[in-house]
């Protein structure tokens, strides 16, 4: 529970030196955001306006600056988590922070006695002392509601008083649930009675549905705007009724006995259950339903669009990577390349670029609307990356102009950015050809699906030591399988095969790169 | 051969752009505009001698004196700091929204200082530099974006209209005001200290609004003393200027018979000279003028927007090289009129301003929820009185909690949205 004597009420935890940073609405009327980066860790000293958390909303990726200076004492969220507006993100101890930046008001409060601060709080609020009753820690109304909202946030126990601790946000732009959290003043008549049924808000068709299903609106958990009961609420209530779950009535609002818990290991996004209160494990506990959103949704759309518009053909070739592997090792050992991450992927990328140069017709796209084939005079080389948030394909712009070293640096940078979940949208646009590396999963091959708008994708299998015939002798060599998918509308089999042969040739005999590159 | 004239040039660069300061800070001479900066207004043959004699301001008539240049530099540094702070405050949940003017500092500080004290300025919602130059404290702007004031300053006292959110809606008001000035006999008397003109500000996006075209019509028909000033910041939210118009904006007004010029909006001197010259022409009774200032909105449209979704970082970098503040600093350095001490002092002052704004907003008490009824009518009004009563009753039925003390009574009540 919030400290009733808390003078600041603005994101302060019970100890007034501890200030909480909550998720603000970073746009207009947004209700939730996904944590994509946490820029601080416990013990870090931060100044006012230092970026502490990066979130992605339906509208944009946004860095949230701290409104106080101090030391980070708690991180209440994790990367990938989807949290509602108003949820606490960090706790900051402001007592040791750079003094000059500190608000004088907060400093004074530390010295004040509880009574003084209580009075100050009343004065601040400009409201009657009646409100003390509301702040009584023993009162059940507050705890039930606040515990509910804290669990929604997926935060730990420290966040239980999130509802009380709302900073001075502009509520008009905040979560739609904010007005719902405000409690109607209970009048004497209401004190002992249930809320009359005619005060429950629902549209006529919803009322009819409830009647038809034999559901009393009073038993329904309202999630609609301004506390209205929606069609989904009625259906959820019916399901609960069938499965024997119960709900509890608190002061005219209805709360499920337990908030649904997402099982360990599933995407944290599903824990955001404020708008789908029963997303998660279904009532028979035999399936788990997760909303399709964000990267998963985009991936699915892209894959469907690609697989069903471009007729795919995949060709395979086993390649002796021994020479290429040796180059990688040489570069890793050389002083000039210290600090640069070199992997076989870099060499394959270079081989692909050389091969494209010999077969420029493959670097093209099919423009259905214009009735044209667009041949590109540049290569924006996409690298498919598995990230915590799903599959994304950022590309290296003008890769055809790059030296091997530049390529290595770009690939490393791109992978780091992608893993950190910070890939900007612009990096995923305007790709021309993509490489996907099955090797990281230690499998031999696959049939890659084209990145939409592109005509070629090269898959690389794991490099494994295998018996190989060289000059009539069976010797152990480093072998990998390459898989090349192409859009058969504009690339004939012969051309696709030639491209794959050229890539293979450069990898087997890197000196060819000197001749062709 | 078609009977129609087909000389529609592609938008690109069919219109020359007047520039006095190159991005590297080099000064390009310009006979007419240099005279304007020197205080010899060439706007009106009759007013020229008058202007010279009646230059009253203490720093002297030279608008490009080193002292003034340093002042513009400081102004721009200050307003940029305020702008960045406001963005942070929005991210901290303290402002409902913020429309950043990052990158448009020269276009705004120049225009703001070009207007004379008696002139009336009619802004959009992104004129933070203009407001600064007119003496409006940044706190007043932040209050509005916090949603607790309708305007924040006295439009009559500071001769600057409230911020207008609806695109282009202010253009007819500006023309109407200018026509009023004509009828009050405040135009063309030859007295630069009392003759008045109106500066109507709008963006490239608003130029597509019907009101702007209608305003051109009225201003031209009545030869109203109004200067239309467009900051073409290249983007109307996500729509590039090339979609807004087939001809350079500067050429549009000529179809109405309104003389126009395109200036480099990241060049504070070019803006200053062009706006001063146009305003003096308008006040002298020569009719309206149109100025297109080419600039760049370096931030997103507002804090609700993500510019990386529709424009490239290459483009942003290209414009960063034309940064207006950097440019003036380079110019001052070339004149040997700026040193590290001054630059540092400006930065410190700007940081102080930012921190003042930070604490001002964070520590701000919430207004009385019924204060919003106070200025609906000048005098008591029965309907408003009833509304006030009903609203008080509505607010009173909520128990007190943290939320209700935090302005939700004012903003979250009613429909809740």
Automatic annotation (TrEMBL), chain A:
Q: Where is the Lipoyl-binding domain?
A: 18-93
Matches recorded under InterPro entries: 2-oxoA_DH_lipoyl-BS, 2-oxoacid_DH_actylTfrase, 2-oxoacid_DH_E2_comp, Biotin_lipoyl, CAT-like_dom_sf, E3-bd_dom_sf, PSBD, Single_hybrid_motif
Q: Which PROSITE patterns match?
A: BIOTINYL_LIPOYL, LIPOYL, PSBD
Q: Name one Pfam family in it.
A: Biotin_lipoyl
Question: In this protein, which residues make up the domain named Peripheral subunit-binding (PSBD)?
Answer: 201-238
Instruction: Give the start-end ranges of region Disordered.
Output: 89-196
Bias kind Basic and acidic residues: ranges: 122-136
> CDD domains this protein is in?
lipoyl_domain
Q: Name its co-factor(s).
A: (R)-lipoate
Keywords in alphabetical order, please.
Answer: Acyltransferase, Lipoyl, Transferase
Protein family according to the UniProt entry: Belongs to the 2-oxoacid dehydrogenase family.
**Which PANTHER family does the record associate with it?**
DIHYDROLIPOAMIDE ACETYLTRANSFERASE COMPONENT OF PYRUVATE DEHYDROGENASE COMPLEX, LIPOAMIDE ACYLTRANSFERASE COMPONENT OF BRANCHED-CHAIN ALPHA-KETO ACID DEHYDROGENASE COMPLEX, MITOCHONDRIAL
Its recorded name reads: Dihydrolipoamide acetyltransferase component of pyruvate dehydrogenase complex
């Amino acid at each position: 529970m919030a400290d009733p004597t808390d003078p600041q009420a603005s994101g302060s935890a019970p100890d007034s030196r501890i200030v909480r940073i909550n998720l603000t609405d970073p746009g207009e009327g947004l209700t939730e955001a996904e944590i994509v980066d946490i820029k601080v860790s416990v013990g870090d000293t931060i100044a006012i306006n230092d970026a502490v958390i990066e979130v992605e909303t339906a509208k944009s990726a946004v860095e949230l600056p701290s409104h106080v200076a101090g030391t980070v004492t708690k991180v209440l969220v994790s990367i990938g988590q989807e949290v509602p507006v108003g949820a606490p993100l960090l706790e900051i101890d402001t007592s040791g922070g750079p003094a000059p930046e500190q608000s004088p008001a907060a400093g004074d409060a530390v010295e004040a006695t509880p009574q003084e601060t209580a009075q100050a709080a009343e004065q601040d609020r400009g409201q009657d002392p009646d409100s003390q009753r509301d702040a009584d820690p023993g009162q059940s109304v507050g705890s039930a509601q606040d515990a509910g909202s804290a669990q929604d946030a997926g935060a730990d126990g420290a966040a239980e008083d999130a509802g009380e601790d709302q900073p001075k946000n502009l509520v008009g732009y905040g979560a739609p649930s904010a007005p719902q959290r405000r409690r109607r003043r209970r009048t004497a008549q209401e004190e002992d009675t249930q809320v009359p049924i005619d005060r429950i808000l629902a549209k006529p068709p919803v009322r009819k549905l409830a009647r038809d299903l034999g559901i009393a609106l009073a038993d329904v958990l309202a999630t609609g705007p301004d506390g209205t009961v929606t069609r989904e609420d009625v259906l959820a209530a019916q399901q609960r009724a069938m499965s024997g779950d119960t709900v509890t009535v608190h002061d005219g609002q209805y709360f499920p006995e337990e908030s649904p818990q997402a099982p360990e290991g599933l995407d944290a996004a599903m824990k955001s259950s404020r708008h789908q209160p029963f997303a998660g494990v279904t009532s028979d506990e035999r399936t788990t339903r997760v909303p399709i959103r964000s990267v998963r949704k985009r991936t699915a759309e892209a894959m469907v669009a690609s697989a069903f518009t471009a007729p795919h053909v995949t060709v395979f070739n086993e390649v002796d990577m021994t020479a290429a592997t040796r180059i990688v090792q040489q570069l890793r050992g050389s002083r000039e390349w210290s600090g640069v991450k070199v992997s076989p992927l870099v060499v394959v990328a270079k081989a692909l670029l050389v091969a494209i140069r010999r077969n420029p017709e493959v670097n093209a796209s099919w423009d259905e609307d214009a009735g044209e084939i667009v041949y590109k005079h540049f290569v924006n080389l996409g690298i498919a990356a598995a990230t915590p948030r799903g599959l994304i394909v950022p590309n290296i712009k003008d890769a055809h102009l790059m030296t091997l070293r530049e390529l290595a640096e770009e690939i490393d940078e791109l992978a780091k950015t992608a893993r950190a979940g910070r890939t900007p949208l612009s990096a995923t646009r305007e790709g021309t050809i993509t490489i996907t590396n099955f090797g990281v999963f230690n499998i031999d091959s696959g049939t890659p699906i084209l990145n939409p708008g592109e005509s070629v994708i090269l898959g690389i299998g794991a490099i494994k030591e295998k018996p190989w015939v060289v000059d009539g002798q069976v010797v152990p060599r480093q072998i990998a399988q390459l898989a090349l998918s192409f859009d058969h509308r504009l690339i004939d089999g012969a051309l696709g095969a030639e491209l794959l042969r050229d890539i293979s040739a450069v990898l087997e005999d890197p000196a060819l790169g000197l001749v062709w590159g | 051969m078609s009977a129609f004239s087909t000389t529609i040039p592609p938008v690109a660069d069919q219109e020359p752009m007047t520039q006095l300061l190159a991005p590297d800070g080099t000064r390009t001479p310009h006979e007419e505009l240099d005279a304007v900066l020197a205080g010899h207004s060439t706007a009106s043959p009759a007013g020229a001698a008058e202007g010279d004699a009646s230059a009253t301001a203490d720093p002297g008539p030279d608008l490009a004196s080193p002292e003034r240049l340093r002042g513009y530099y400081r102004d721009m540094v200050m307003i940029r700091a305020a702008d960045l702070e406001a963005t942070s405050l929005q991210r901290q949940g303290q402002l409902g929204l913020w429309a950043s003017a990052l990158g448009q500092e020269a276009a705004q500080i120049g225009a703001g200082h070009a207007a004379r004290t008696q002139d009336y300025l009619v802004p959009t919602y992104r004129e933070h530099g203009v407001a600064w130059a007119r003496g409006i404290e940044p706190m007043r702007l932040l209050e509005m974006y916090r949603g607790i004031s309708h305007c924040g300053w006295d439009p009559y006292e500071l001769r600057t209209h409230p911020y207008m959110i609806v695109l282009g809606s202010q253009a007819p008001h500006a023309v109407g005001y200018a026509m009023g000035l004509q009828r009050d006999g405040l135009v063309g008397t030859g007295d630069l200290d009392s003759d008045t003109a109106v500066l109507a500000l709008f963006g490239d996006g608003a130029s597509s609004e019907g009101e702007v075209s209608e305003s051109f019509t009225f201003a031209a028909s009545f030869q109203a003393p109004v200067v239309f000033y467009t900051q073409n910041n290249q983007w109307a939210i996500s729509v590039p200027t090339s979609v807004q118009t087939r001809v350079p904006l500067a050429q549009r007004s000529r179809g109405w018979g309104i003389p126009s010029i395109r200036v480099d909006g990241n060049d504070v001197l070019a803006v200053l000279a062009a706006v001063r010259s146009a305003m003096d022409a308008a006040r002298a009774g020569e009719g309206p003028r149109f100025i297109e200032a080419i600039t760049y909105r370096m931030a997103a449209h507002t804090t609700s927007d993500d510019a990386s979704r529709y424009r490239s970082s290459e483009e942003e970098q290209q414009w960063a090289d034309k940064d207006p503040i950097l440019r003036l600093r380079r110019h001052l350095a070339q004149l040997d009129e700026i040193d590290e001490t001054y630059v540092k002092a400006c930065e410190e002052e700007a940081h102080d301003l930012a921190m003042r704004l930070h604490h001002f907003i964070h520590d701000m008490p919430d207004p009385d929820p019924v204060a919003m009824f106070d200025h609906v009518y000048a005098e008591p009004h029965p309907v408003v009185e009833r509304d006030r009563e009903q609203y008080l009753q509505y607010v009173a039925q909520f128990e007190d909690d943290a939320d209700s003390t935090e302005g939700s009574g004012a903003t979250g009540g009613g429909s809740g949205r």
